[in-house]
Task: inverse folding
């Protein structure tokens, strides 16, 4: 007989969209792209892709014989991320890892505490310059994002962060991209994925370097003294 404490909780989390059909309101499977992200506004009905005028996403799983469904909003990227997080929690329980639920007091400090601990871990394996870049990016993100808990972060928060760097901090396109990438790496390390698509990333267009011809260089060197040549 298997001891009660080691019985696995084998829960599979699925994502459906609640839409109105000719048969009334139905929970229909979502449509996935090749990279695993949900195609916004699409669902499967009788094996065919359909596009409803409206509808909301729901997470679903089973607790014993009971089917559980929870609404997760109308944004496809946010719904996908919440599904990944819920599945990760079930997988952790299944592996015997304790999952700590946050009470209101702990939740208020969860983002700031995690953002503080993460660069400290990075400091042990990074060069000082890289560590400083991570600390700065996380500091800016906390300044921009007022969400207390990592699980509350949405695609819109990340888009606001990109605009915040550009408009409020007056960062160059390259700096905006680098800091955005650091935050995405930070969130990925916390198990949060799929919030943004490739078109949501800030643009980082490298400028074409100016090339000097040899004739121009000869004229420059001709008027340089010894120190200027060095």
Result:
């Amino acid at each position: 007989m298997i001891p009660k404490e080691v019985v696995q909780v084998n829960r599979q989390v699925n994502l459906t969209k609640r839409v109105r059909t000719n048969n009334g309101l139905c929970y229909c499977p979502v449509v996935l792209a090749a990279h695993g992200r949900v195609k916004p506004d699409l669902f499967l009905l009788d094996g065919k892709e359909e596009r409803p005028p409206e509808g909301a996403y729901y997470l679903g799983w089973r607790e014993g014989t009971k089917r559980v469904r929870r609404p997760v909003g109308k944004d496809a990227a946010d719904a996908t991320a919440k599904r990944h997080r819920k599945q990760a929690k079930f997988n952790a329980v299944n592996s015997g890892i304790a999952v700590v639920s946050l009470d209101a007091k702990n939740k208020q400090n969860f983002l700031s505490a995690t953002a503080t601990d993460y660069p400290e871990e990075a400091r042990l394996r990074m060069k000082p310059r890289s560590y400083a870049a991570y600390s700065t990016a996380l500091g800016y993100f906390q300044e921009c994002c007022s969400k207390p808990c990592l699980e509350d972060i949405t695609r819109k928060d990340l888009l606001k962060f990109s605009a915040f760097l550009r408009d409020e901090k007056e960062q160059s396109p390259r700096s905006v991209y680098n800091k955005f990438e650091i935050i995405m790496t930070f969130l990925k390390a916390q198990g949060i994925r799929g919030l943004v698509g490739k078109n949501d990333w800030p643009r980082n267009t490298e400028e074409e370097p100016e090339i000097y011809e040899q004739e121009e260089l000869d004229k420059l060197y001709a008027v340089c003294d010894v120190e200027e040549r060095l």
User: Anything to note?
Assistant: The helical segments are 76-94, 104-123, 128-144, 155-167, 173-189, 214-222, 226-229. DSSP finds seven helices and six strands in the chain. The domain at 104-200 is CATH 1.10.150 (DNA polymerase; domain 1).
